[in-house]
# Entry
Amino acid sequence: MESRLRAAFCVLGDVLPGWRELLTAPRALGRLPGSLLAAMLSSESHKERVMQSVSQVCYCEPVIRSSEVAMSTTTIRLPDELKARVARAAKDAGTTAHGFIVDAIAEKIEAHERRTAFHAEAQQRWAAIEGGDNTLSWADVRQYMQQLADGENPAPPVASAVER
# Structure
């Protein structure tokens, strides 16, 4: 299996600059899309088959060797049932439990940051409305959308200051 992976990585290394790093970073396998990994591991794996899957890889981050990043150890106590679920999910995703947990934490943080930014923008917009910025009334927007749905060509609603 390892020789097939190395051969597939050599093909990718010839096609995409920077992929040669994967030859020295086998732990990076968890970062590859499952369809590409399956193409590499299949018995009929060859350059054309891998090339068909290259478009799925282009968004992947470059491999960072652990010697380039300082990481401290953090211990997380997980109930046995959750550990088993993580192990199953990681196996299904083709990664390690560690990689799966790190990705899950990163996704949760990104979602929290997007939600926080969304709320901050909403508060700024509300403050602008309270400060006198023009807005569209829901009744005007709804009427406009209904006319569009009915096939009419109405004039867009006009923004005005909020009536208090």
Remarks:
- Helices lie at 2-15, 34-41, 47-53, 80-93, 97-130, 138-149.
- The first strand starts at residue 134 and ends at 135.
- Residues 1-51, 53-67 have pLDDT under 50 and may be disordered.
- The chain has six helices and two strands.
